């Protein structure tokens, strides 16, 4: 299934997805645009960007820049 123009995806530097592994297999736009060939390099998993490991291994929420907030 294609929901977004493959050329738009192809031009993107990175694509934010909910699940890197699932999207690399299931999302036709990403596969057609070649983004699924190396998911770790081309896809950003949203959970990876919202929380990070802080001091002492504690998970902390990442502060989003103003442009990324709704």
Explain this structure.
The chain has one domain (6-62). The protein is 39% helix and 17% strand. It contains five helices and four strands; from the N terminus they run αβαααβαββ. It has helices at 6-11, 20-26, 28-32, 39-42, 46-50; strands at residues 15-17, 43-45, 51-53, 59-61. A hairpin with a 5-residue loop joins β3 (51-53) and β4. The longest helix is centred in the N-terminal third of the chain and has 7 residues, at 20-26. The radius of gyration is 14 Å and the shape is elongated.
Based on the model shown, name its key terms.
single chain, alpha+beta, 39% helix, elongated
Secondary structure blueprint with pairings:
Layout: H1 6-11, E1 15-17, H2 20-26, H3 28-32, H4 39-42, E2 43-45, H5 46-50, E3 51-53, E4 59-61
Parallel strand pairs: 1-2
Antiparallel strand pairs: 3-4
Mean pLDDT: 72
Radius of gyration using CA atoms only: 14 Å
Strand content: 15-25%
Helix-strand makeup class: alpha+beta
Work out the number of β strands. Answer: 4
Sheet with the most strands? 2 strands, parallel
Write a compact overview of the structure shown.
The protein has helices at 6-11, 20-26, 28-32, 39-42, 46-50, and strands at 15-17, 43-45, 51-53, 59-61.
């Amino acid at each position: 299934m294609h929901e977004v123009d493959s050329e738009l995806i192809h031009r993107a530097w990175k694509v934010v997805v909910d699940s890197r592994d699932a999207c690399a297999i299931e999302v036709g736009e990403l596969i057609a645009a070649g983004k699924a060939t190396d998911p770790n390099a081309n896809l950003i998993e949203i959970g990876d960007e919202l929380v990070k490991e802080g001091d002492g291994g504690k998970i902390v929420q990442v502060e989003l820049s103003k442009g990324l907030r709704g």
